[in-house]
Amino acid sequence: MSKLSRIIIILALLLGGVVFVEWNSNAYAAEFDSETNKKVKNLKKLKIPDEGGNKQETKEKSWKKHNHAIKIVKQYYENQGITVSGDFDDIKYQEQVKTLGLAVFSFKKSEQDAVSEYIKFMDLYENYEQNEQIDELINKFEKEVITDEELSLLFDLGVTEESETLDVPVSEEEMIVHLEEEYIPNNLATVASVDMPEDDQTPVTDPTTEDDPDAIDNNAGTSANTYYPLKARDYAYKWTSNTANLRNNASYGYYSKNSGGCHDCWWDCTNFISQALAAGGMKYVGGVGSGYVWSTNWYYASGSNKPTFSWGGANAFYKHFKDRARVASKVAYLRTGDVVSLDTGGDSKIDHNVMITKNWGNLSSQKYYTAHQSDTKEEYTLARLYQQGYKVYGIEMDKASN
């Protein structure tokens, strides 16, 4: 049916007093620009577990394969007074398992490998449902009845195709030494081979080269884009606590309110990082009240409005800042106030975001992070994340347009 025919019919119905449904211009998208059509056409399905087969077969095989880890996770939460369903298809349970991506080091060494593999499995298992969502949304797109929010969700479900941030190659013996040092609080003397910088300085050996002349800003206290890494770090310090009074800033109460008023029952990693960036001077992008679904925007709002998906969603956050800032090609380029995005299962979707709050050198084992969910303040370094086999994407925030 042509546009003219539709208009004639609508006018006739209006004049006859028959039309009683609201015309939603956002929901009816008859035409899309060529770039949007291209993006939808190029969308890829998300990776599913290696067990393969259909969802039910994978579920049965994996229940046996990960049975030990399932029991460990159950006990972990019971020790905190939290009941878990153990149902692979329960979204809340999926999040409870995936949340442990930053807590895996708190388990016994004999349990860590099993828990880590279970976390990676769950990150992929949830993709069965998300692939179904992709199919449904593409179908709506093709029928020209997709809403702005649904279109943004479709793009958010898409994969990440950026180059990872590479670690500095070190010998196995050196890596073991650095990992052992993590268990010694505030240990500086044992890293004798490195001339330690102040916490707010750049890495000891400036990695700037002719082919990457802008890799390092030589003053972490200030940035050309008016982002202040140390203010972001100090905010992260203040609000890293498992108490109701200190863990959550009441000025950012949207997620708590929409989760029933609790203080730790939602996936808070990215909301926390966004708050720290804002405290460091990172400016909002986009108008509050409109465009919250698009990853090109980034802002907090509450009440009748909502924060952007990129404010509280790990994958949308990464999509925003990979374009707004820069993904570091080497871990040596990362420093205090930079954000590290993690893909725990290797499905090219970001699951966690953390902030570097202490930087003692070029190695990943010299860069300490602070994060929420699970809450941690400089207990571990980026080396632990590489050790777990996570894909690491470090974002240089001093390069962000601001």
Summarize the structure.
The chain has 402 residues and is α+β, with helices and mostly antiparallel strands.
Features of the shown structure:
single chain, 402 residues, alpha+beta, 2 domains, 16 helices, 38% helix, 7% strand
Protein architecture, described:
The protein is of the alpha+beta class and 402 residues long. The protein has two domains: 119 residues, no CATH class; 228 residues, no CATH class. It is 38% helix and 7% strand. The chain has a five-stranded antiparallel sheet with strand order 4-3-2-1-5. The chain is globular. The N terminus is likely disordered.
Global outline: globular
Percent range for β-strand residues: 5-15%
Low-confidence region ranges: 3-30, 184-219
Distance from first to last alpha carbon: 46 Å
User: Can you list the strand order of the major beta sheet?
Assistant: 4-3-2-1-5
Overall pLDDT: 79
Number of domains: 2
Tally of strands: 5
* Count of helix runs: 16
Radius of gyration: 23 Å
Largest sheet, if any?
5 strands, antiparallel
Q: Structural class of the helices, strands and pairings?
A: alpha+beta
Helix content: 25-40%
Write down the secondary-structure element order: HHHHHHHHHHHHHHHEEEEHE
Topology:
Elements: H1 3-15, H2 34-41, H3 55-65, H4 67-78, H5 91-98, H6 109-125, H7 127-142, H8 148-156, H9 172-181, H10 229-238, H11 244-247, H12 254-257, H13 269-279, H14 309-312, H15 314-324, E1 339-343, E2 352-359, E3 367-371, E4 376-381, H16 382-387, E5 391-395
Helix pairs in contact: 4-6, 10-13
